[in-house]
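Researcher: Next entry in the queue.
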Amino acid sequence: MNLKKTFHLTVALLVMIMTTASLYLSNTTLYAAKFSDDPLDPVHPAFPKEVVLIDVGHGGIDGGTSFQKIVEKDINLKIALKVFMLLKSKGYYAILNRSNDYALSDDNHWLHSSSRHLRDLAQRKELSRQVPTLLVVSLHVNWGKSPSKRGPLVLHQNEGRSYLLADAIQQQLNLLYETNQQPKLGKPFYILNYIKDPAVIVETGFLSNPEDRAMLTNPRKQLVIAESITAAIIGYLMEV
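Model: Structure for this entry, 240 residues:
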């Protein structure tokens, strides 16, 4: 094949890649942890074949639970960014479904529903369908009626791989919080019911508990929480 034909073939392939990437990236802010170095790799500027999808709970008008001026959505994002960077530093592929403070329902222009909450949940589910997803970790903060209630809780699907991932994360966080909680089936939760890939919801602590709250709002402790979650994800991936 001569150089002219090679050039035209390369350009055509790059156009196809960029078109695919634009379809993936439309209406959703994503950050990929690692790209191929080969410009002709079909996944090059879009996504690798399988990624860890970090679902950042709440955002924008939906603040989640709160205590005085402390809002769950901010804690979720700070821990999620740390998990993302840690996975990146270890060479794993990962993406975030939001990197700033906004509601994912704002990105959903395809579901004709008056419910902002439903549009938000549907957008999170749709992303896992559009992107080649290995597993989904949804990050949240808990709240209890009693301020004495504390510690992490990981919810899983009614599926073996999801349970194994939940158990790995739960045990790592138990060591950090010095608790003995077991993962629980998250039967009522939309994400766990509608995402087909192994998915878990990680409640990183109780904002209603002073001890947990001190951890959740401390940047250094947030990093330790993120390290525990990351270690569990990597451990799980090495086992399955």
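Model: Confidence is low (pLDDT under 50) at residues 3-45, 108-117.
Researcher: Noted, moving on.
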